[in-house]
Structure formats: C-alpha cells, structure tokens
Amino acid sequence: MRLYIDPGTGSMLFAIVIALVGLLFYVVRGLIIKIRFMISAGKQSGHDADTIPLVIFGEDRRYWPIFEPICRELDKKGFDVVYMTSSKEDPALKCTYPHVKAQFIGEGNKAFARMNFLRATIVFSTTPSLNVYQWKRSPDVKCYVHIPHAATGLTLYEMFGIDYYDVVLISGEYQKENPRKLEKLRGLPEKELVIVGTPYWDVMHKKIQEMPPMEDHQKTILLAPSWGPNSILNRFGSRVIKELLATGYHLIIRPHPQSFTSEKEMITALMEEFPAGEQIEWNRDTDNFDSLRRSDILVSDFSSIIYDYAIVFDKPVICALSDFDTSKYDAWWLDSPVWNLEVPPRLGAVLTEENLPDLKNIIDKAVNDTSYSEERQKVREETWANIGKSAEIAADYLIKKYNDLKAAEAAKTPAKKAKKEKKDKK
To answer: Does domain 45-198+388-404 have CATH number 3.40.50.2000?
Structure first.
C-alpha cells in the first residue's frame, strides 16, 4: 500500500524539515562566525564576501518579460544581479547582459530550499506567499521586494500573498488602498508601496510603435482564458469554441500555461475535439505579443491579459465574468469591490449564459463600437504611471535601496564593535 500525502500536509512537513535544517544551519554558522571574529580581533572578515547584492527570483520562465526591462536598466548602470530561476527553459539563462548572471536552482521545493538559506541584501520577485508556504524569509536577506506580474488589483492573491514583503513596486495609485487596509486588519507594519509603472507594458508599447500597421487580414478572435473553476473554458467548455467558430472568423486559442498542468485532461479533450486547421490555431508561444497583435478582439474572463489587450493595444474585449468565490483570496477580508471584477465591464461587453448564443453579434458590435475607447483611456490613466520610464525608475529604486541598506549596516558596525569590546572588558 502506497502512502498518500495531500499537498497541504506535504507543504507543512516540508516547512518543518526546512525549519529544523535551518536552525541547525544557523547555529553552526553562528559558531563559525564567532570563531572568525575572535581570530580576526573583531576586524571585518570575508563573511560578507558571499552576500549577493541583488537576487531576482523567477519561479517560472513566463516571468522573464517582467524582469528583463529592469535587468537591462540595471546592467546599463553597472549593477550586478544574480537571476535565480526554477525553470530550465527560462530565457534568462540565455541573457547576455554582462552584469546579469542567471542560474537554474532546481524546481519546486529544491528551489525554495535554496532561497530559504540565501544570503543577499535584496531579493526581488513576482512570487507571492513569501513566508506562508514553502518559501520562507532567510535571516540573511535584508529586504524582500515584490512586483506584481500584471497591472491589476492586489486582492486576488491567495490569503497573505504579499504580507511578508518589505516593498511592493506598483503600477499606479489605485493599488495602494487595499494593501493598507489589510495591514491594519492584520496588525502588520506598513510596507513600502513604490509607484514605478509597468515595465513590460512599456516594452509592448514601444514595440507596437516601431512596427508597421497590420495589413488587411481576415477578422481574428483571440480566446485567452485564465485557469481554474471560474475560467471561461471551465464555465462554458466546448460551447464557447463552437459559438466562436460559428462566426466564420479566424480563431486563436491561447490557454493559460497553468491549464496544461492543472487542467491537462480538459485541454487535451478540447484540442482533440477542435484540432488545429485553417480556421483555428492553438497558441503556446512564451511571448503573447504576436497573438495580441494579430487579433481584432479578445474573449476572456478575469485573466490579466484583458488589461494588456485593452490598455496597451487599445482593442475591444469581451469578458465572461462570474460570481467569483473570494474565500481563499485576500479580497475576502475586505468590503471594497474586487478591482479585477469591477473594471472589465468598463472595457468591453460581458459574456453570460443568456447571451452566449448571440456571441457573433456581440463580437461584431464590439469590434466596430467606439463607445468603450473613452473608458479604456480612463483606465489607462488610472493604472499606468510613468509610461516609458518604469524600468529605469524601478532600477534606480533598487540601487538606492541597496545603498541605503549598506549605509545603515555600516553605521551599526562601530556600535556593535564598541558593545563587543565593552562586554569583553567585564
């Protein structure tokens, strides 16, 4: 009989093992440091030589576009970065920036184990739930900085998603209110909320401006759902694809990458029922720019791709929203509306069970209707600060933060040394 351990229990057991190993690790290392200190008569030793100034942790290859513009700016400024990834196929591993060194640190728990014992001044990541599940704060990291992987509201993280970060780099003023409310409810110290903008939007925007206009082409629909029980494919299944094909328009289906792991059976069945052909294509490109550019309208749900499409590409969207269960998210704690559910109807039509059979007419109207363009502009102004400058602002902040932390540490050293000498004299 095989022993089965559910994921929650497995996570807890892993956390216990890591805690015990960590305790032993830091006790032993503490003794070594004390011995070094005594041998060097209290002088600065090589203990800090292996402290990395800035570590970027990329949990998945799809987060490289978030970090690449910032890495480019840090490289220009001559600031060294170690990019740690848990994806063997991460494009960062082929990065040629002289000051950015990427390394594969293993997948899953192996990667988190490495991060838990890390010695660095700053760790910068998109990964939520720091200090909640497997990924724990290392005692040898001075500051943890988070950047959301999309310019959306911050309450649809699973509970406590960003609670234990010291800093969050945000895209606009609209993202400040709810983290502050959660801090008060949970009795947490205020973290730094720094408005930098959205670096990957800036890259998209520049790329669009540099490319020639699209040539005349067959009207094309992009179906790009999120994943999970609230997603459009889970709600409507094959019916939505049949309705889209019935329009006669070209259809690009781009499932969320996580669907190929967590919903493999459903995706496989749909791909078999609707094989690629002249009218339909399944897209799994790492970069979604081409599919966004080639399509005329997006059909989605609560996926953050709707903001890329409506705000950066300035194209119409149709969203299949539902009664979203917030019970496992930070949004559950708050009375305020969920931003990710309040904003989509401002950007385009809402798809429901009732109007699904009329999808072709909804699409035709949305493609030709300019009434949503004014709302798209308003949302753009709300969400996208520092257009064209966000990566540089983020890089400047990280460098300044590093220098401030090192200065603060240097200021404490004489006091620590004096305290040690006073203690020795007794």
So the answer is: yes
